[in-house]
Amino acid sequence: MTKKVSILVVEDDESMLEYVSTVLERLGFEVTQATTGREVIAALAVNSFDIVLTDHLTVDYKGTSVLQAVQMLRPQAQVIVMSGIPTLEEAANSYLKGARAYLAKPFGLDQLRSAVIRCLEGTA
Which of 9, 46, 92, 104 is most solvent-facing, going by the fewest CB within 10 Å? Predict the structure, then answer.
């Protein structure tokens, strides 16, 4: 039996958190939710995620800090950064710090699915 791909979704906007989580669950992924940096650290401490999909800004962490926490605690996990106020500088900085994909909000189902698939294939 093949293990389900596990994704941690980090988002402090409840409607976006539910949208992304629901889409990913319908695509067959195992989803864990976090709304704060503390919840991220707690989840990373006990779970091995394949992908972490994080908002650029959360209540108590910037997305790049979440990215750094993932790299320290679960370096095998791929990170996708989402942003509601995307800039070229922010996207470039996210990639330079190790993000495998970057999504500008609002994004559609196809963009989300494509980013996740690229992370799983290692071709982001």
Answer: 46
